[in-house]
Amino acid sequence: MNLKSSFWYATKILNSPFGKNTTGRRSLVGAIFCIALSLVPLVVVQTVADGMIEGITSRMVGLSSYHAAAYLVTPFSNNSTEAQIAELENTRKTLEKQSFVQGAFVEVSGTALAAGKNGRSGAQIRAINNRLFTENSAFLKYINVVEGTTNLLNSSSAVIGKKIAQDLGVHVGDSIRLIGTMTLANGKVIPKVKIFKISGIVSSGYEELDALWVFVPLASGMAFLSGSSSQFKIGLEIDGAFTNNFALEISEIKSKLSSNWSLFTWSELNSSQYENFASTRILLLFIMFLILLISSVNISAAIVMVVMERRSEIAILKSMGASPSGITASFILCGTFCGLGGVVIGIPLGLLCSINVNEILDFIQKIVNVCAKFMYLLVGKTDYIPVELLNPAYYLDSIPIHISFTELFVIAIGTICLSMIVSFLPSVHAGQEKPLSIFRKL
Amino acid sequence: MSNIIEIKKLVKTFYGAGEPLSILESLDMSVEFGTKVIILGESGCGKSTLLNIIGGLDTPTAGIVKVGTYDIANLNEEQLTEYRSSFLGLVFQFHYLLKDFTALENVMLPMYMRGASKKQASERARQLLCDVGLESRLAHLPAQMSGGERQRVAVARALVNDPKLILADEPTGNLDPKHGANISDILFSMVEKYGKTLVMVTHDVSLSSRGDISYKLQNGQLVNYES
Fold first, then answer.
1. What is the pTM of this model?
2. Is the alpha carbon torsion for A392, A394, A396, A401 positive or negative?
């Protein structure tokens, strides 16, 4: 029995009309849908996880760590803010002269306590030049202005994150007090307060990143932040930050910096997060693979059913000269076609779910909340707090997807191979059937 | 003329829970190429067992069974496959057609399995089905045909690979006398037309006259049958 006749017989098994004695074929169709359904979460996890990781990391790199950042490691020799700014600017200009540096941005950061109308919150002070909002491509791309403007209009203007604005209960035009510390000459630490007026409220789309942001003008920020507890850095946007040339570019930048500066790359600054994301993604995909593996057992069970149902045909084929390997191949092909059917249905369905994942989650969230609220009313409670399926503190506002056709291809081929593997044992068993023992039972 | 079947001292014993049951005891048989052999006997006398052994579906307990160049008792699975597909055509009491294949496809399949192209197999199958009078039933599934028609398809299928030997195990046993006679006519005429060797086992003593040689199987031995 050659492969083409095995193929022909396999297609006949799959195309057999439904009837009274077609449990096997029903099982095969069921197995196809099981594979398809198990592929849906796998594809969703793959596309959403990639999109989510890409969305989060690109925000972290673009809006926080930069592609690379030069940190001042020794204190300024001059205590004058103007002199310090001039020194920072000189270094910035030196770095910006490199052809592959798209932009260099001075930033001084530190922490403080922010107080508004409704409360207090810890704050991450980012003292910057206004050009960060207008020239940095990541800021232009990801920063969403919720209220007001990103323009730091004067020395007491501040642009703050959406979450901290909510916590403080402030809007554009309101004032906030930043409370820091100041160390006196005698070593005594005393509080230091400065009032800023909100000119804008922004969001990066990733609350964990922007929850405590308070952007203030560079000079005001430097004057406010205590030198010993603040970080002076020059953030760099570099062409080729994600290519093999990056190491070469970094070493070139290092050669331009004095010994007062240390240079760190985006991967060094965010390595723990990347490892965390990558391991979470692998774990999720592994769980999804287990679901797929369990589903593929259905194919094996369906092939067992088909073999049992078609024992007489196996005997007939063998008596006509069909080889055991030919019969085995027929049933393996059946299982493989099931896997293929699952892939053809499951992957597009998974992609459809991925593309509409935000709408689907919103819908489920609404249903859950309506049902939960109804239950609360039934038991006479009114203090219902709406459920958020994805806490915005840890996820992006809108889930992005990243479709990797290479990975989808691997999933498809893997599923088909898995179907082939799980069909193997019952198919071999079919090939080893003895025709006479079957004929005697007919 | 040389022998196509050469059986010497064939023994077949079934071992079950009780006493061993000897069905064939030191049976000898020779069949020349192109002859039609009828084997008669009562139910359970071992006719089908003998045919199954010749067909490579069963194995002898002892003895030599040579069919053509094949030593049946010592064939491995691969050689058995080759033997069944190229040397042998089987017709059973039941038609044993594949339910999802049309009459034409059922006849084509053995030839297609041997590597012929679909076109070649289809042409040959069509010709054989015309020979058995089923030219109008080519595209019908077994479920859409009568018992006699199904058995005619089975006869055509047995001949499609141009085998040297046709083994027929009660081919009319499942049909009424009229259709049984019709199938017998077709089988004998096809064997005659294509010059095949036929070994048929049957209850039907009336068929003994249709063969070149008739045997009766009794007490595990073949004896010449005189009608």
1. 0.75
2. negative
